[in-house]
Specification:
This protein is α/β, with parallel strands linked by helices. It folds into two domains: 294 residues, Rossmann fold (3-Layer(aba) Sandwich); 108 residues, Dihydrodipicolinate Reductase, domain 2, CATH 3.30.360.10. It is 38% helix and 15% strand. It has a seven-stranded parallel β-sheet with strand order 3-2-1-4-5-6-11, with helices on both faces. The chain has a four-stranded mixed β-sheet with strand order 8-7-9-10. Strand 9 and strand 10 form a beta hairpin. Helix 1 packs across helix 4. 48% of the residues are buried. It binds nicotinamide-adenine-dinucleotide.
Length: 437
């Protein structure tokens, strides 16, 4: 990737478009409104709270990331979105039951103003939902045009200078890359023919790319990770990122597994189960949607542990992932991990992790960071897959033929080095010999 020569100023308004205004999207919106009113801290967002070391450790130069690279500030953000139900962001947030009443009441007026545009909904991709607030069009190609029209109208009406989009819609059924995804022409043709390989999420993404709006996919379904999308992103100078927000159990996996591997501890089994009762859980109760999630969750350990290099330590690993829809739990997910590991001479040990997390509380800062960093990427003229944003994803997108980096700490190093590289600051290798010369 070519190093940016300059980064355009973040002045003006940045519109954040979220297709899918459910628990994650509304928690993000409410959180930003609360944070900018001084009524809450944007905990978990690197763009708001993170720092970056520059130069040698002895230089003591550690600015906040937001002071080091030119980022849009929270008060410059404007939210919009689409959903297949007509609830405004306040109603949807109430329904999601993530944030407490006091928090929602404090920003009620602003949330009520965020009303979803009608969604693109071909129901076969999310069988558990029966949308009522949906567009009608003769073909998928016409659908793309309608979404493009929404984007332009939103930008004009809200006086935005730039836009970014993050897919926060439900997880769609498992589809693999087919001939329709092979090139821009094949995809455009598929849109006109209503090809079943083109899902709702792909229609939003295509419309965004045509409007030069950077796009991130927060769900595990196929959306912008195929050759047609990469070519399109290159042609239209659009940064892309995906896929599947890394929160909860997988976040823990990518923290723990690199640690075991770093110390050459073996793993015989890793059994993960989750209970959750929100709409996401309901959608994932459908086997087709669960399959998409399962693939995304299972890939992580294989890539981190590299069993082909360490057959004695990881060659026999049994890895299972379960998700159970259990209504009483709402958004307060509970993840259980049973890890069977072994040490010196093969002696077995066990570790149990019981993470009582809150899915949307962990996902909201990820959405915010992705929006802020994708906007930065576009102002720096970066386009196509932004691998430096792997930090935020369970199944990071990479260049074809390249395996994804899942280790959270390598991902963070990559992210920070990319920021240094963008502004012409030396990257940091952590070699450290200079202190001993
Ligand atoms: N919360 C997390 O920790 C986390 C982590 C990784 C991935 N995700 C993914 O993020 C997405 C959002 O999660 P959530 O908890 O907010 O789910 P949610 O069910 O609360 O919200 C999803 C919203 O998308 C809407 N929707 C579905 N199809 C749509 C379409 N075609 N157009 C517009 N809107 C549509 C639904 O009506 C719903 O309001 C899910 O795909 C989930 O798997 C979440």
């Amino acid at each position: 990737m070519k190093k940016p020569t300059s980064i355009r100023s973040p002045a003006g308004k940045l519109g954040i478009l979220l297709p899918g205004m459910g628990a994650v999207a509304t928690t993000t919106m409410a959180g930003v409104l609360l944070a900018r009113a001084g009524k809450g801290l944007p905990v978990g967002a690197l763009s708001q709270m993170g720092t970056i070391r520059l130069g040698k450790r002895t230089d003591k130069r550690v600015p906040k990331i937001s002071e080091f690279v030119p980022l849009a500030g929270l008060d410059q953000l404007e939210f919009g979105g689409w959903d297949i139900f007509p609830d405004n962001a306040f109603e949807a947030a109430q329904h999601a039951r993530v944030l407490e009443r006091d928090h929602l009441e404090a920003v009620k007026g602003e949330l009520e103003q965020i009303r979803p545009m009608k969604g693109v909904f071909y129901p076969g991709y999310v069988k558990r939902l029966h949308g009522t607030h949906i567009k009608t069009a003769g073909t998928k190609a016409e659908m793309v045009e309608q979404v493009r029209d929404d984007i332009r109208t939103f930008k004009r009406d809200r006086a935005c200078d730039r836009l970014v989009a993050v897919w926060c819609g439900s997880t769609e059924a498992f589809i693999t890359t087919g001939p329709v995804h092979a090139s821009v022409d094949a995809f455009e043709d598929g849109l006109r023919r209503d090809d079943p390989g083109i899902s709702n999420a792909q229609i939003y993404a295509w419309a965004c790319m045509k409007e030069r709006v950077p796009f991130a996919n927060g769900a595990p379904n196929l959306c912008v990770d195929f050759p047609a999308a990469w070519d399109m992103a290159r042609e239209y100078n659009v940064p892309l990122a995906g896929k599947d927000f890394k929160t909860g159990q997988t976040l823990m996996k990518t923290i723990l597994a690199p640690g075991f591997k770093a110390r050459m501890l073996g793993l015989a089994g890793w059994y993960s189960t989750n209970i959750l009762g929100n709409r996401d859980g309901e959608v994932l109760d459908d086997p087709d949607s669960f399959r998409t999630k399962e693939v995304s969750k299972l890939g992580v350990l294989d890539h981190i542990l590299q069993p082909e290099l360490y057959p004695q330590l990881y060659g026999e690993l049994v890895h299972k992932v379960r998700i159970d829809y259990y209504q009483p739990r709402g958004d307060s997910k509970e993840g259980w991990d049973n890890i069977d590991l072994f040490g010196w001479l093969g002696y077995p040990m066990q570790m149990k992790v019981n993470f009582l997390c809150r899915d949307s509380i962990l996902a909201a800062p990820v959405v915010l960071d992705l929006a802020i960093f994708l906007d930065l990427a576009q102002r720096a003229d970066l386009r196509g897959t932004q691998e430096w944003l792997s930090f935020y994803f369970k199944s990071p997108m990479t260049a074809p033929g390249l395996y994804p980096e899942h280790d959270l700490f390598i991902q963070l190093m990559k992210l920070k080095n990319t920021l240094r590289w963008m502004v012409g600051e030396p990257t940091i290798s952590h070699l450290g010999t200079e202190y001993y010369d």
